[in-house]
Specification:
379 residues; alpha+beta; five-stranded mixed sheet; three-stranded antiparallel sheet; 9 helices; 10 strands
């Protein structure tokens, strides 16, 4: 019995995973076979009844009953074929069509009310199973877009809060110095040197405000930037990377930058070259900034993604930086009025726009490793 149950379950699985047309033909074939078997049984039974009726009943009753039994004897196959066809169509719709329709209806109803938590449970390898799989992919994409939208809104709120906080300091300084000058200049209590000192401080604060404004403009431009991909040979792309390395390495000539490439040089990839190079240059700039003696770069070009690994031998990321270094205006350290994290924020934003991601980790041998991934096509 177990063997029969296994075979039956295997047969049902094959029927469920076959295409709709083949599935319908299978149901009709099984119905035709069942109609043939039942018609043969019915003909045998009718033949026996004709014999019994002819010997046990009067001629009048015999003729009447014989007509009914003869009708069944002659037409049982056609009757069973019609019945089996109706049953086959009903079973086909019940087992192949209705479950997928019900799953899609529930999914669309949930999506219509904004509930993205219900997974589409229908699993099959036929056309409807493929349609349900595409609908499930759409649900996951909607979840991803909603999450990204929420993260963008959170980032925007953080940016606005940080911007307002950083604007408050220079404005407060300028307001205080302006009130001071307005109060004491008319009284003649401020000398030329003090006046110039205060004006220089106010000018530096004005420059900070201009820098902040330029930063906000830059952030807006990055957020609105669209991916403009094109086919480029990997050999030409690697030349661009080497040129960027040579140009940036001049700022610290004592650092040794080495690059490795995994891929076919004669192949082509479809990417936004300018966007990818901007990310690479930002990562290399940060690595040069924190490295002691060496920077290792590895480039991997696959069928669906392009990946950069940039490793330096510096002190690495702090635990706080691993969680938030890519956020704009990350304030663990500030140097020369520039906010640490702006470059990584640009890299993260551009990677995500290109269908990839940015990952920050520390090397077990010391130093930081930044991985930038981009979605691409390869040929």
């Amino acid at each position: 019995m177990d063997w029969l149950e296994e075979k039956w379950e295997s047969f049902k699985t094959k029927i469920r995973n076959t295409s709709l047309l083949r599935g319908l033909l299978c149901y009709f074939f099984m119905g035709f076979a069942a109609a043939l078997v039942f018609s043969l049984l019915t003909r045998n039974i009718c033949k026996s009844w004709i014999f019994v009726i002819g010997h046990r009943h009067p001629p009048r009753i015999w003729v009447q009953d014989q007509c009914i039994v003869s009708f069944l004897y002659d037409n049982s196959f056609y009757i069973y074929v019609l019945m089996a066809s109706g049953i086959a169509v009903w079973m086909f719709f019940r087992n192949k069509i209705y479950p997928a329709i019900q799953a899609l209806r529930e999914a669309l109803n949930n999506l219509a009310i904004g509930d993205y938590s219900h997974e589409i449970q229908y699993r099959s390898e036929d056309e409807l199973g493929s349609l349900c799989g595409e609908s499930e992919y759409l649900r996951l994409q909607l979840i991803k877009e909603k999450r990204e939208q929420w993260e963008e809104e959170e980032d925007q709120r953080s940016i606005n809060a940080a911007f307002a906080h950083d604007m408050r300091t220079p404005l407060t300084v300028m307001k205080g110095y302006t009130e001071y000058l307005l109060k004491y200049i008319p009284q003649g209590k401020i000398g030329k040197e003090i006046l110039l000192e205060k004006l220089n401080v106010m000018q530096s604060q004005q420059e900070r405000l201009i820098t902040f404004t330029g930063t906000m403009t830059r952030i807006r431009q990055i957020e609105k930037r669209a991916v403009n991909g094109k086919w480029v040979k990997l050999s030409e792309f690697m030349k661009s990377l080497n040129l960027a390395i040579k140009a940036l390495a001049k700022t610290r000539e004592e650092i040794n930058c080495c690059i490795e490439f995994d891929g076919e040089p004669n192949a082509e990839i479809f990417i936004d070259v300018e966007m990818v190079l901007e990310v690479f240059e930002n990562l290399l700039h940060n690595a040069i900034r924190y490295a002691h003696k060496k920077i290792e770069i590895r480039v991997q070009a696959g069928e669906r993604n392009l990946v950069f690994f940039v490793r330096d031998d510096g002190k690495g990321f702090t635990q706080r930086a691993l969680r938030a270094a890519w956020k704009v205006y990350y304030s663990e350290a500030k140097e020369d009025g520039e906010h640490f994290g702006m470059g990584l924020f640009i890299c993260k934003t551009l990677c995500e726009k290109h269908g990839g991601k940015l990952i920050l980790i520390n090397s077990v041998e010391g130093g930081a490793i930044v991985t930038a991934e981009f979605l691409c096509r390869y040929r």
